[in-house]
UniProtKB/TrEMBL annotation:
Keywords, alphabetical: Methyltransferase, S-adenosyl-L-methionine, Transferase
Database matches in Gene3D superfamilies: Vaccinia Virus protein VP39, Winged helix-like DNA-binding domain superfamily/Winged helix DNA-binding domain
GO biological process: methylation
The species this protein was found in: Immersiella caudata
Protein name per Swiss-Prot or TrEMBL: S-adenosyl-L-methionine-dependent methyltransferase
Gene Ontology molecular function: O-methyltransferase activity
Annotated InterPro entries: COMT-like (IPR016461), COMT_C (IPR001077), SAM-dependent_MTases_sf (IPR029063), WH-like_DNA-bd_sf (IPR036388), WH_DNA-bd_sf (IPR036390)
Lineage: superkingdom: Eukaryota
Active site per the UniProt annotation: 310
Record's keyword annotation contains Ribosomal protein: no
Pfam families (UniProt xref): Methyltransf_2
Keyword tRNA processing among record annotations: no
Length: 400
């Protein structure tokens, strides 16, 4: 026991030194966002040094309690009913305001107070930045509770039925199974109601903010080459959706105009993007092609795929990447923007991997990405890492 205590003391001392270093970086100008993942990882290691098996089970239960409390407070409008920051309200008054029994509301309020989601002092509740965020943008929390929790809970039954192997079929996904819709694609399930679709869109927007568009990659070389040659197309955004990535790319790249860019996606998505008539996309060429079945525009300098490959199995990704390779010229580059799991990966990256498993996709390590690109006849030139996270822009070229 004395030896175990000494080991824990040594771990705490090491982690203390690490936290001091992170504190020093922040005081010397590093942004909180760039250090956030490492700070969270360090504090998680402190917990891991102290916790045992019973704590693991208790933590699982605590997370479920917090999740359902957040979801019910959103459902009842209790977050939005809290007074402005700096003011407080009694639990009884809040219960009357939202039409919920006080004896019921208090149980969930205690959970959220203990989790520091909002402030609780006796029977008085007041906002924190966290509860304000849930009041202002509740749809992401709704999406993960309503849409992602059922597949997680259904996982044992799914693997009993189909065997303990990684899901790869997008029409027989764990997500669809968990929602009682086996054989139905994920988009069809999500599109089954306007509320579900709205929650999905908002959740994806918020997750999108954690991925780079272009930085730290410098695309100015492509704009320079385009000036000196007759290359009509500089950038093709494969699976580009509404064009928001291309707007950021053009804005960040000196000498690149929207007229030298192409957005490729499913015909119905392309048509929807064109109907918006976004002035920032004026001059953009739209091409309606299913990237899983057809190749993009030939001969562009840069092909760009952002937050897309993790939706698909390895075999499907190899097919998609082969389509791109066939369109590439010898000097073309493919830029793949994805979360890249480190070794060891962070807890958030591994949790995201479970999320993608339910959609028959997966998060990947850099070696996983090297494998699928090599099988498609491509080679990884360099991984350009974004600051403060596990996202990267993977630069690829045709393998010779």
């Amino acid at each position: 026991m004395a030896s175990q205590t000494q080991d824990i003391a040594n771990q705490i001392e090491t982690l203390g030194s690490r936290l001091m270093l992170l504190s020093h970086r922040l005081r010397n100008g590093s942004s909180l966002e760039s250090q956030r993942t490492e700070i969270l990882d360090a504090t998680a290691q402190v917990n891991a040094a102290l916790e045992g098996p019973v704590d693991d089970v208790r933590e699982m239960f605590n997370h479920f309690a917090k999740a359902v409390s957040i979801r019910l407070f959103i459902k009842w409008g209790a977050f939005t009913a809290l007074p402005p920051i700096g003011q407080d309200i009694s639990i009884d008054d809040l219960a009357r305001k939202v039409g919920v029994d006080s004896g019921l509301l208090v149980r969930y309020a205690y959970v959220l107070g203990a989790a520091k989601i909002f402030n609780r002092c006796g029977d008085r509740l007041s906002h924190t930045p966290r509860s304000l965020s849930l009041a202002a943008t509740p749809r992401m929390a709704q999406f993960f509770f309503d849409e992602m929790l059922p597949p997680i809970l259904a996982s044992p039954a799914y693997f009993d039925k189909y065997g303990p192997k990684a899901p790869t079929c997008r029409k027989n996904s764990l997500f669809s199974f968990g929602h009682g819709k086996p054989g139905v694609s994920v988009p069809q399930v999500i599109n089954s109601s306007p509320e579900r679709m709205a929650n999905y869109v908002e959740a994806m927007k918020m997750m999108d903010r954690t991925y780079p568009f272009l930085a730290p990659y410098d695309l100015s070389w492509a704009a320079d080459v385009a000036k000196e040659t007759d290359r009509a197309v500089v950038v093709v955004d494969v699976g580009g959706g509404s064009g928001h990535s291309l707007k950021e790319i053009v804005k960040a790249t000196r000498g690149l105009s929207m007229e030298r860019c192409v957005l490729q996606d499913l015909p119905k998505i392309v048509e929807a993007a064109k109907r918006v008539k976004d002035q920032d996309l004026e001059g953009l060429k739209f091409v309606g092609v299913d990237f899983t079945a057809g190749r993009p525009v030939d001969g562009a300098l840069v092909y760009y795929m952002r937050r897309m490959l993790h939706d698909y199995s390895d075999e499907a990704c190899v097919g998609i990447l082969r389509n791109v390779r066939e369109a590439m010229a010898p000097d073309s580059r493919l830029l793949v923007v994805e979360q890249v799991m480190g070794e060891p990966p962070s807890l958030s990256a591994t949790a995201s991997n479970i999320f993608m498993t339910s959609l028959s996709g997966k998060e990947r390590t850099l070696e996983n990405i090297r494998d699928i690109t090599a099988r498609a006849g491509l080679g990884v030139v360099k991984a350009h890492w974004a600051a403060g996270g596990e996202a990267a822009i993977i630069e690829c070229a045709k393998a010779m």
